[in-house]
Specification:
Mean pLDDT: 80
CATH class of the largest domain: Alpha Beta
Distance between the termini: 42 Å
Order of helices and strands: EHHHEHEEHEEHHEHEEEHEH
Number of strands: 11
Strand content: 15-25%
Number of helices: 10
Largest sheet: 6 strands, mixed
Radius of gyration: 21 Å
Length: 323
Amino acid sequence: MNTPASVKAPEQANQTMRSDRAAGQAAPERILQRLEWQVIRRLDGLLQGDYRSLFYGYGIDFADLREYQPEDDIRYIDWNVTARMNTPYVRQYMEDREITAWFLLDLSPSLDFGPEDSQKRMVLVDFVATLARLLTRHGNRTGAMFYTGISTGRNAVDRTIPAGSGRKQVLRIINDLLKQSHLQRAPFTDLSPLLIHSLNTIKKRSLVFIISDFISAPGWERPLKLLNHRHDVLAVRLWDPREVELPDAGLIVLEDSETGEQMVVDTHDKTFRARFKEVARRREAAVHEAFKKAGVDALSLSTEEDLVKAIARFAVLRKQRRR
């Protein structure tokens, strides 16, 4: 099977989320208030309000040239000047005060995997709401594209929320995410149409977050690289520990999250568990290699990881790279 298997039917998870909505526990305002108190407030303390390390790289106005220093981003090397001066020089840009950020959101069936109270889809909602609020409270604009892999042609993206600012924009994104229907079955996901669509439609240089588990048919690596040449792209890879290593739980039914294919396996079998772990390792290695070749900064976000610590860790890595 190509996608991680779930040990419970997707409908069970969907029923849980629907009951939460009915009880008012998943209302957009309630979610945003929780994140502002539990996540954003803590991030302000850890990062001391300085989010340049996360959102740096969107400037477009040329300012000056200076000699290359260790850990400078090689994408800003001016090769013409470097050849004339016989020493590396990098371009510096004036910071564009207003950022336009886009969230490219993979909402395929494999996102409905994970513990009932922390599926990958739920982690996606929390992450998007947090980053959107951090951006909009400083006057920046955010937009979103929803992608399930069902639509084709010009309508490759299922839904686009135009870029906007303010708290209402964040609430709109959360609300539309919660209203997005959960697909019980779907063709195997291909992220290429989403990346190509965004490459063709996002005209102004922007900060682009691609949030997915990157369980996809091959071929998305090239459009990712092209997108990163035009924009500042950040990849957020969602994953669950059970996708990487199976527990020793005896006979269980594994179900492909996207195709619905099922099979009974004996997790007591050490050889089977070892093969499962090796396949997962190879898949992860391939994804990380694709990010590296595209020059994209990547955050690996587990369903069991504290969101504050994950974002703070990512900020440190971004800061180190941009020095």
